[in-house]
């Protein structure tokens, strides 16, 4: 089973995207994980290493899907 990581920062755009995207994922094929970078700051470096440039973003395998620009990772680092 593949893992899908949804990175976000808690903004309204991110929360809306999280609800929509996770509802559409086939949970029989994908194990979803949600990472709130606003509260889990130690995961920002991980997100950068896999290619996340802005949030919300969905990572499945080596593919990064940026969804409706909410905030850059630079903004999240604050």
UniProtKB/TrEMBL annotation:
<dbReference type="Pfam" id="PF13192">
    <property type="entry name" value="Thioredoxin_3"/>
</dbReference>
<feature type="domain" description="Thioredoxin-like fold">
    <location>
        <begin position="5"/>
        <end position="65"/>
    </location>
</feature>
<dbReference type="InterPro" id="IPR036249">
    <property type="entry name" value="Thioredoxin-like_sf"/>
</dbReference>
<dbReference type="InterPro" id="IPR012336">
    <property type="entry name" value="Thioredoxin-like_fold"/>
</dbReference>
<protein>
    <submittedName>
        <fullName>Thioredoxin</fullName>
    </submittedName>
</protein>
């Amino acid at each position: 089973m593949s893992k899908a990581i949804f990175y976000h920062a808690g903004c309204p755009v991110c929360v809306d995207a999280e609800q929509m995207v996770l509802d559409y994922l086939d949970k029989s094929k994908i194990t979803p994980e949600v990472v709130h970078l606003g509260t889990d700051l130690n995961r920002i470096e991980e997100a950068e290493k896999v290619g996340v440039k802005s949030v919300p973003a969905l990572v499945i395998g080596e593919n990064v899907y940026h969804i409706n620009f909410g905030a850059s990772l630079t903004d999240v680092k604050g």
